[in-house]
Design a protein that fits this description.
GO molecular function (chain A): amino acid binding; dimethylargininase activity
Strand order of the largest sheet of chain A: 2-1-15
Number of helices of chain B: 33
Order of helices and strands of chain A: EHEEEHEEEHEEEHEEEHEE
Shape of chain B: globular
Strand content of chain B: 15-25%
Mean pLDDT of chain A: 90
Number of domains of chain A: 1
CATH architecture of chain A: 5-stranded Propeller
Largest sheet of chain A: 3 strands, mixed
Protein name (chain A): Dimethylarginine dimethylaminohydrolase 1
InterPro entries (chain A): DDAH-like (IPR033199)
Structural class of chain A: alpha/beta
Oligomer: heterodimer
Family (chain A): Belongs to the DDAH family.
Helix content of chain B: 25-40%
Keywords (chain A): Hydrolase
Distance between the termini of chain B: 58 Å
């Protein structure tokens, strides 16, 4: 069956998208009135892509920015890829709906089985989808609803799809991510811990957890590299010094701190900025 | 089997015996040791004749192996002389006569060769008992055997019985045989001839023999009832009683999907599992992705076709295979592409790979049931090896692992689980779900009990206690646990049997051909949320979808029916009553009341329909199973609508009428709602009298309490927890209107030392029932078996409390009940008017006013007892959508139908704070209810010694409830007498006469 655990973390490609200049604009989309330094953000993003390309050895497919889509760099929200199937999402924010088009095109070119959501009532942000290698957890948030989760379940029938309520305008992966096979990295906030508890209850499988002090630091990218083994992209000590220390505990891991200070201001976590794909050749 | 056979058997037997002599001593010893038990059981046969003697011996020897329920039969026969005549006679006969079939030499040989493994063989009990020792020779084996006994018990005893029955019958008259059509997993039909009165095990064994299957514990036979529901054939019960008027068509299927198929011992077992999974996949019951369909399909080809032949064009024939519910050309190409990569793989390897991939599917082995949560939202409950899964549409919204579940119960159409408090939580919470109808609830309950037992328990221990408890009930999961079957499998010592893999092409076709069998579940499974119906066309009803209202549901109910025997059976009369989902309680109530009982379901439906949200469906079930007359109560209720006659047959005199009228009464009540139990009497009576019964309430509760025992005496088991489930069935009691009920409560206390701490599960079946007033309790279905560690708590609701206080007064209880209900106890009396039949199970029907008895009976909390005729409130808690376990309680007021409750709870040594006051453990509780009589037997172990020795106190509470016409004194006298017969040492500690009138409770919502 697809998605065997042994394949977990194995990726060959990454889809990314450049940050448009409109990124830093005070859009209505931004609830926070945080100053975002566009240049800095773009620089961060470039470094991020460099890491994917050179350190992780992925083939990076970079989509051009679209000025009309300020958040287009957060491609994770646009698609959920598991095995050979890509579910093109229907983002909860209507101004972001068009972001999926370019992503869909590129995934199509990769010969993935494309599944689209044609249900107008469904919303799904990729950031709310946590795939553990064994099952899916979907955060029911402001951006993702039940119907969206159902469609995800229909798309990936092999797996159990459990729902986890997520409040406060956040996404499920705003405070967690996979840190390896069966390892969940989780933030310390009450919300994060509650979500973890729910996930644990819903699963037939026992996951290990790694708790970090900062929720934002819990969003990491795990990749299993053929030559380097377990590899984790995580926050820098500058951003979250306490959390960064926690990652030191991961033995046998190649730890790669990646700066994400600007993007995180707009909820742009590490996982947000790419769609990782395992495409057997 | 015919007479001839019998004679042969006898002849052979004799010699065998001689041969066995060496072993004999052991046996004798065993027998002797067991004698006490036997005696209690009252082997009637023993005295009878030489033959009998033999039998008795066997019986005794076998008794070890006998599952509780078997024993119970004996007990029944004794205890219930009056009632059981029919059954009894046969049984005795059985005992006397040598088992015909088994005797055959071949079989005997087989047994020997594969002692454990060959459950199939039907060797007579004796043979096994005697031979085992011999064969086994080495201590090791013996141990295994011992362990396996539990497992064997089921089969063998059953077989033995079944056979015994046959044999017994033979002399009397020629056995009538019936040809069963069994659809095998490869789609072929196997005609099997069995005696008309044969038990399920007989047929199952035959099928397994035909298949040459030793690891058969994962499998079962199912049939479709008249509602087109798939039901598991209970091996311990007569086939005929289970299928009723349905055709003798069965499907051999996987009942428990092994989580790790690689641990199966034989390839043939894996092969059969593959066949089942192919069906599941093709039918959509087991959803998978395109890639997985393709991969599994490629293994199927490899297993069935061998290596890919480049010269042949696969695509030609490949489309004849069904790899998915709907397969595209693209998929077929993918299948072939993958197929080519399997070159060199043997069929067995291909099957193994198939299973390795299939087992990872999230819905593998998940048995889905439609339900609603507290808010009326359609959900699906999935029972699997690890616990209970809750789905909404296709999303998993909650999960309760077995270790988290303390108690499983159902009442009417509500299904409840009590959850172990989390770390931060102090109290246990209960979660309730609304099933489409009572039968569905019961089915789900049984499936849960079985899965829990099978996967979670290591070993069901033998019930030492059985001795004490004369009453036994039967039903429970009688098979071996997975641990046992694995262990038994290790003893399989035979060359891998040769078997032909047939093409799955044929499979698909055949399935089509046999519409009814086999595939049902799928529907449910297919789409969690919205499954359409079952395979057959009928299913519209099946869908639970919110829209579907009562009508639909009525038929559809659950897709999976298991052990529904209880309720299923009668076509004619009985139809299941179903309470359907409740939308608004009040509506239900109204509807219920308004609805006039009509025999036909359809009418009911219509009426029910009237109530938009909720539909109650009452169907009367005419049929009672013989064994479980009690269940009839429900039926009686149903009957009210349907057919009175039916009710009569099964039920006691008084009740039937009541039932019949119930519907009518209901209306009246609605009008003049208030019957208070106390005051009501008059009015109620009047009304009732006129109609006979105003309402019948049926409440059925079955609860299984699972506790994990830490102490468990047994170490063997890995499984930490022992679960014992006891199910008690209550027999329906009917009380006519709100009139006074006479209750006699007897408390008998005995003390004995129980050797084992654990208990086993008890099963309940409602066996029979009684006629109304006169009848006594005889049937007890549950035999409590002990499981090692488990403690049994009395019936969930009631039992526990009862245990604590030996003789609660009924009055007291009632309040308690209410309270509980309010609290959200699962048990709550069902407000809703749904009447269901419980034939076998426990249903205690309560007629309107009668409620009292139930309460009285001793289930303190539980509603089991009858309550005031009028309205009872149930609390239903529905699980939260999300993991958080909430307890929401909705109270419904519903007219009550009669209720039967049987509950047996086993609790672990440490009792959770169920609120039992007793220090001791409650080992078992049984409640037997006849129309007028309800007996609750609770066994407490007051002191638990770690060694496993404990002091046991058996408390028996007998509640006699009845119409106003009941002669209390007489009934009481009889009850006491019977009790004394069973427990000579007992003393009557309290007699309470309680009159209840019907009360309308209106405030409760």
């Amino acid at each position: 069956m697809a998605g065997l655990m042994e394949d977990f973390g194995n990726f060959t490609h990454a889809v990314v998208r450049a940050i448009p200049d409109s990124f830093a604009n005070e859009d209505s989309r931004r609830k926070k009135t945080v100053e975002v330094d566009l240049a800095k953000a773009q620089r961060e993003h470039e470094l991020y892509i460099e890491v994917l390309r050179h350190q992780l050895g992925l083939r990076v497919l970079e989509l051009p920015a679209d000025e009309s889509l300020p958040d287009c760099a957060f491609v994770e929200d646009a698609a959920v890829v598991c095995g050979d199937t890509a579910l093109i999402t229907r983002p909860g924010s209507d101004i972001r709906r068009k972001e999926t088009e370019a992503v869909k095109m590129v995934l199509k070119e990769m010969n993935l089985n494309i599944v689209e959501i044609d249900d107008e009532s469904a919303t799904l942000d990729g950031m709310d989808v946590l795939f553990t290698g064994r099952e899916f957890f979907v955060g029911l948030s402001e951006r993702t609803n039940q119907r969206g989760a159902e469609i995800l379940a229909d798309t990936f029938k092999d797996y159990a799809v459990s729902v986890v309520p997520v409040q406060n305008g956040r996404h499920l992966k705003s405070f967690c991510s996979m840190g390896g096979p069966d390892l969940i990295i989780i933030g310390s906030s009450e919300q994060a811990q509650r979500a973890l508890k729910i996930m644990k209850q819903m699963s037939d499988h026992r996951y290990d957890k790694l708790t970090v002090p900062d929720d934002a630091a819990a969003n990491c990218i795990y990749v299993h590299l053929p030559d380097k083994g377990h590899t984790l992209l995580h926050c820098t000590p500058e951003e979250f010094p306490e959390s960064a220390k926690v990652f030191e505990r991961l033995k046998d891991y190649l730890l790669i701190p990646v700066s994400n200070a600007e993007k995180v201001k707009v909820d742009g976590a590490l996982t947000c900025c790419s769609v990782l794909i395992h495409k057997k050749v | 089997m015919t007479t001839e056979v019998v004679s042969e058997a006898e002849v052979k037997k004799e010699p065998e015996k001689a041969d066995e002599q060496p072993a004999a001593p052991q046996q004798d010893a065993e027998q002797e040791s067991e004698q006490p038990a036997a005696i209690q059981d009252g082997d009637t046969p023993r005295t009878a004749s030489p033959q009998t003697d033999r039998k008795s011996k066997e019986a005794r020897g076998l008794s070890r192996f006998l599952p509780p329920w078997l024993k119970r039969q004996k007990s029944q026969s004794r205890t219930e002389p009056s009632e059981d005549h029919e059954d009894k006679a046969p049984m005795e006969e059985q005992l006397e006569a040598p088992p015909p079939e088994e005797v055959s030499p071949q079989e005997a040989e087989r047994d020997e060769s594969h002692s454990i493994g060959s459950a199939d063989t039907q060797p007579a009990k004796e043979e096994k008992g005697e031979e085992f020792p011999e064969r086994i020779g080495d201590g090791k084996e013996e141990e295994d055997l011992l362990e396996s006994k539990a497992g064997e018990k089921e089969d063998e005893p059953l077989k033995a019985e079944a056979e015994a029955e046959k044999s017994s019958l033979k002399p009397a008259k020629k056995m009538k045989t019936v040809t069963c059509q069994v659809t095998l997993l490869d789609g072929s039909l196997l005609p099997c001839e069995v005696e008309k009165r044969a038990k399920g095990i007989v047929l199952f064994v035959k099928v397994c023999e035909h298949l040459n299957l030793l690891e058969k514990d994962y499998f079962g036979l199912c049939y479709k009832d008249h509602a087109d529901q798939k039901c598991w054939l209970d091996p311990a019960k007569e086939i005929k009683r289970q299928i009723r008027n349905c055709p003798w068509q069965f499907a051999f299927s996987v009942k428990f999907y092994p989580p790790d198929p690689s641990q199966l011992t034989e390839d043939i077992t894996r092969y059969l599992l593959c066949l089942q999974l192919r069906q599941d996949i093709a039918s959509g019951r087991l959803p998978c992705s395109f890639v997985t369909h393709s991969l599994l399909g490629s293994y199927t080809l490899q297993a069935e076709m061998g290596d890919h032949d480049p010269d042949a064009c696969c695509l030609d024939y490949i489309s004849e295979f069904q790899f998915a519910p709907s397969q595209s050309k693209e998929m077929e190409e993918k299948v072939v592409e993958l197929y080519k990569t399997h070159r060199g793989m043997s069929p067995a390897q291909a099957d193994a790979q198939f299973l390795e991939n299939a087992k990872k599917l999230s819905m593998y082995g998940v048995d889905l049931h439609h339900a609603k949560d507290s808010e009326g939202v359609d959900i699906m409950l999935g029972v699997c090896a690890n616990g209970l899964l809750i789905y909404k549409d296709r999303l998993r919204i909650n999960r309760f692992a077995w270790p988290k579940i303390l108690k499983i119960s159902y009442k009417r159409s509500n299904f409840y689980i009590k959850i172990r408090p989390g770390e931060a939580e102090q109290f246990e919470s209960s979660v309730g779900f609304k099933l489409p109808n009572h039968r569905a609830a019961k089915r789900l309950w049984k499936v849960c009990v079985e899965h829990h037992t099978f996967f979670r328990l290591v070993t069901p221990e033998q019930p030492p206690k059985a001795r004490f408890l004369t009453l036994g009930s039967k039903f429970r999961y009688s098979g071996r646990t997975q641990a046992q079957t694995r262990q038994a499998s290790t003893l399989i010592d035979r060359p891998a049997p040769h078997f032909e893999r047939c093409s799955s092409k044929r499979l698909s076709r055949s399935l089509d051909g046999v519409p009814g069998l086999g595939m049902d579940d799928q529907a449910g499974a297919t789409s969690l949320g919205r499954t359409p119906g079952e395979k057959n066309g009928r299913d519209p009803a099946l869908e639970l979808s919110s829209d579907s209202k009562s009508k639909l549901r009525v038929q559809g109910e659950n897709i999976y029916v298991r052990h529904s025997n209880l309720m299923l059976e009668d076509l004619d009369k009985t139809q299941e009553d179903v309470l359907k989902h409740q939308a608004s309680i009040s509506e239900l109530k109204r509807n219920f009341m308004e609805s006039t009982p009509e025999p036909q379901p359809s009418q009911w439906d219509k009426r029910l329909t009237a109530s938009p949200a909720t539909s109650l469906r009452l169907r009367a079930q005419a049929a009672f199973e013989e064994e479980v007359p009690s269940s009839s109560l429900l039926s009686s209720t149903v009957a009210c609508t349907t057919s009175v006659p039916a009710a009569e047959g099964a039920i006691a005199v008084g009740s039937p009428p009541a039932a019949a009228h119930v519907a009518e009464k209901a209306l009246p009540r609605a009008d003049g709602p208030a019957y208070s139990s106390n005051d009501v009497g008059k009015t109620a009576e009047d009304k009732q009298k006129s109609d006979t019964l105003e309402q019948a309430e049926v409440e059925i509760e079955e609860t299984v309490v699972i506790k994990e025992v830490r102490k468990a005496p047994k170490v063997e088991v890995t499984v930490p927890e022992v679960v014992v489930t006891a199910v008690t069935e209550k027999e329906p009691e009917k009380k006519p209107g709100g009139e006074a009920e006479g209750r006699g409560g007897e408390g008998v206390t005995q003390r004995g030392s129980t050797s084992s701490d654990s208990h086993s599960e008890s099963e309940d079946e409602a066996e029979y029932h009684p006629q109304a007033p006169s009848v006594s309790v005889d049937q007890i279905k549950e035999l409590p078996e002990e499981e090692e560690e488990l403690e049994v708590e009395a019936q969930p609701l009631e039992a526990e409390p009862t245990a604590a206080s030996p003789c609660p007064t009924t009055e007291e209880q009632e309040p308690a009940l209410k309270d509980e209900a309010q609290n959200g106890h699962p048990e709550s009396q069902s407000p809703q008017g749904s009447v269901e039949e419980d034939e076998e199970d426990e249903g205690e029907p309560k007629l309107n006013g009668d409620a009292s008895r139930a309460e009285t009976e001793g289930f303190p909390q539980v509603i089991c007892c009858s309550e005031p005729p009028v309205v009872k409130t149930e609390m239903v808690t529905i699980s939260d959508t999300f993991a958080a376990q909430k307890t929401e309680i909705s109270t419904l007021e519903v007219p009550i139908v009669h209720t039967e409750t049987k509950t047996i709870t086993y609790e672990a040594a440490q009792v959770d704070g169920a609120g039992d006051s007793e220090p001791g453990m409650l080992m078992t509780a049984q409640t037997i209810t006849s129309e007028s009589l309800c007996t609750t037997t609770t066994t407490h172990i007051t002191k638990m010694l770690k060694g496993g020795v404990s002091e046991t106190r058996i408390e028996k509470r007998i509640v006699i409830s009845g119409d106003s016409d009941i002669d209390h004194d007489q009934a009481l006298a009889r009850a006491i007498k019977e009790a004394k017969e069973q427990h000579p040492d007992m003393s009557v500690t309290r007699v309470v006469v309680h009159k209840e009138t019907e009360v309308m409770e209106e405030g409760k919502d």
